[in-house]
Write a structure and sequence with these properties.
343 residues; Herpes Virus-1; three-stranded antiparallel β-sheet; two-stranded antiparallel ribbon; 15 helices; 7 strands; 6% strand; ubiquitin protein ligase activity; zinc; zinc-finger; Fyv10_fam
């Protein structure tokens, strides 16, 4: 009742007869409250009419055709996964014409596929373009061996010997023993030749030799072109399969009451080794100085010497306009550090 009296609502209070015996401290009261007039009805919301049949589809098609979809669609990611046919279908369904396959990984995969099938000519043309970087590599000699043995099987030993005379001498100094085995293996490529000895079985197995050469080509080519020899998804799956047994064992141990009480963080208590061929897969960057994971507020920063620390560590190590790298004697200005973005 006091709320009604003190409020801004129009009301009046007067004494009244109670239905029960009156209390001296709580007499019965009658309150009159004037109700506010009803608010007028809101006007109906305007109705929006969209006439799709009147759209200018010619202008829409022109605008879509002017977009360089090869730069927007993740075709390179699909191609890097080895799904070249899926990438072609993706581009075709997008209605894009005249799209050139500029992905270096696609070229490497195509050359490797031809090499696995026994055709070393595309790989040899690629090595000629990259001859400056391959002058101390074993790949050119391996490709010449594959092609010479193919000539011996398809065109005869004479053609293979002529090819060997033209291309093998430049590799004689570094591959003397391998060259001798390859030349001797040509004798067993004749149609009426007896079964080869064991030391030549691998060279005369076209399928195995092609697969080995293709694997070597992918490794060398991806190293020179700064490409990953496998897709990011494939690498993540392989890394996950490697660490799954260790994570399972670790989970079983961390569920014990004593361990759970002593270790409360969300991180793993130790790193899991992926092996020599497991690759380097890091979902986060941990600062080697502060032992903290990087974030958007504390990103990794690359110093002029190449070492990487977090921004918080950089601010703590900086002394005015000078900063000495904690790993080498090089000094620089803190403003010269550059932020690193992980894709």
């Amino acid at each position: 009742m006091l709320d009604l009296v003190l409020s801004n609502i129009s009301c009046s209070v007067e004494g009244a007869e109670g239905l029960v015996p009156a209390d001296a401290h709580h007499p019965p009261l009658r309150a009159r409250v004037l109700a506010a007039p009803a608010a007028p009805a809101l006007p109906p919301a305007p109705r929006t009419v969209r006439r799709f049949h009147a759209a200018d589809y010619d202008a829409v098609n022109t605008a879509l055709a002017s977009v360089d979809w090869d730069q927007h669609l993740s075709v390179d990611c699909i191609e890097a996964a080895g799904l070249e046919e899926v990438a072609d279908e993706f581009v075709a369904e997008a209605g894009v014409t005249g799209v050139e396959r500029r992905s270096a990984f696609v070229s490497v995969e195509r050359i490797a596929a031809a090499l696995a099938a026994g055709n070393a000519l595309p790989a040899l043309r690629w090595t000629e373009k990259m001859s400056h970087d391959l002058r101390n590599d074993d790949l050119p000699f391996t490709l010449h061996t594959v092609h010479a043995l193919k000539l011996a099987r398809e065109e005869g030993v004479v053609s293979a010997i002529e090819y060997a005379r033209a291309h093998f001498p430049r590799h004689a100094a570094r591959h003397e023993q391998q060259l001798q085995r390859a030349v001797c293996a040509l004798a067993w490529c004749a149609p009426d030749a007896p079964p080869p000895p064991k030391q030549y079985e691998h060279l005369l197995n076209a399928k195995a030799l092609g697969a080995e050469a293709a694997e070597m080509f992918i490794t060398v080519a991806c190293s020179l072109l700064n490409l990953s020899p496998c897709s990011a998804l494939g690498g993540a799956v392989r890394a996950g399969c490697r660490v799954l047994p260790a994570l399972h064992d670790m989970r079983a141990k961390m569920t014990q009451p004593r361990v759970r009480a002593a270790y409360t963080t969300a991180d793993l208590p130790l790193e899991v080794d992926l092996g020599e061929d497991g690759g380097a897969h890091h979902s986060v960057f941990a600062c080697p100085i502060l032992r903290q994971q990087a974030s958007e507020q504390n990103p990794p920063m690359r110093l002029l010497c190449g070492h990487v620390i977090s921004r918080d560590a950089l601010n703590k190590l900086a002394q005015g306009v000078k900063l000495k790298c904690p790993y080498c004697p090089m000094e620089q200005s803190p403003s010269e550090a550059r932020q690193i973005y992980f894709s």
